[in-house]
Amino acid sequence: MDEATPEVTRGRGISPIWIIPLVALVLGIWMVIHTLMSEGPDVEIRFSTAEGLEEGKTKVKYRNVQVGVVEAVRLSDDREAVLAQVKLDRDVTDMLREDTRFWVVTARLGAGSVSGLDTLLSGAYIEMSPGRGRAGEREFVALERPPLTPRGTQGLRLTLVSEAAHSVSTGDSVLYKGYDVGRVESAEFDPQRQQMRYSIFIDAPFHTLVNSSVRFWDVSGVSVSAGANGIDLRVGSLDTIFFGGVTFGVPPGLPAGEAVQDEAEFRLYPSFEAAIDNPYRHGEYFVISFTQSLRGLLPGAPVEYRGIPLGRVERIMVREVIARGEREGRFGTGAAIPVLIYLEPGRLGMPDNVESIDKLVHTIVSGIGNGMRATLASGNLVTGSKYISIDYFPDAEPAPPGEFEGYTTIPTVPGGFERIEQQLYALLDKFNQLPLDKTVAGANDALAGISTTLESLRVVLDDDKLQQLIGRLDLTLAELQVALAGFSPDSEIYRNLSASLADLDRMVQNLEAFSRTIATQPNAAVFGADIPPDPVPEARSR
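RESULT FIELD:
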């Protein structure tokens, strides 16, 4: 019997011992993939300082919901900034765009408000504002200050321009009739244009109040002005007194304009008075050249027609005079100094539009042909300020309108004080032409004759005979006074004289009666006068 031969068979399955490692591997891979898919993006935010930033603690929030955390904080390569490595949630990946904004939220004291008080207990955090630009951005520059207007807020953003800085700063209120309707977002100085530029935002629905006729002015602090009507005191709200503010409105008498677009530009006036003094948006420049001193004539001085404002003085064109003098070789010859003025057609009753500018130029040119001239007048004798007056002078010499640096020129005539000065100089010239030497010599001779006469008179008065004559005259006057005293009403001579005068009066009356009788009856002197009977009235027959 043959021995049994063992048979060896090869197993085809996986040993159960490998099941556990394989499951662990799959789970690990799945966890890695899930972790990678659930993790949000890593971004880098550039800050000017690391204030309020802590690794692993500083949170990133959007609408007060945590969406990330700061993982690391380091200096930039140039040592000029701080770079924060931030891990964000996957849900906010689509919010990362080129205009996405980040800023640190801390406790801040703003214009009339306090923000970020919750950070005193919880600590500072990074606020996120999603953008609308190109997606996929991973490097950002943080804002120095929180934006005052959240992205997406309905309203109107405008730019205010001023030649000088006012008491207006970022965060100040924008008011309309005392009501808060917006805020100042930024205040920057433009070195190229050399002017202040303020960005403001007016919330909806108040943005519809802004039109092309609106004027903006500064209402910061307290404004005091004195005029013919007394003292005007203007006090804003407490916020504008301590923090400043801007308000707007349509000047009285000016119709409402057209709606304006976003980012429109307006001028910021220093006060309400300055805003209403410049209610018009269209005007034209003219040039007036003066040969007299311009001391007291400042930019902003009024240009008037018989007391009616027409515009204002813009500036004295000194640079243009120097440049033209150098070109023409006439510098230093005493040429007239041009003054640039700005006239507004709306002040003449014309519509405030571009078409009225041509009408204004035509009116000025026609007026020059009819004797329109400009003069430099004194506005205030105390301060010495001056203004330009435009009026008609029929006796003025003909002078056609000229041109200077592209501007129409208005001829001038001497002003009031200048005329007086010219007349005074003419009088002095005539006085200098008089023969004063001969006149003075004749006067000296006359004075010498008078002196001789007075000396002779003194000798005559000192004569003894004259003194005796004066004594006798005094005695005669005394006797005459005594004699006249005898003719007083109480004296005997006075009574006798009165009786004689009465008799004389009666005799004169008798003589007058006798003369009348002789005149009517000449024979009465011989035969006597017949006295006719008194007439008896007769009855009228019927």
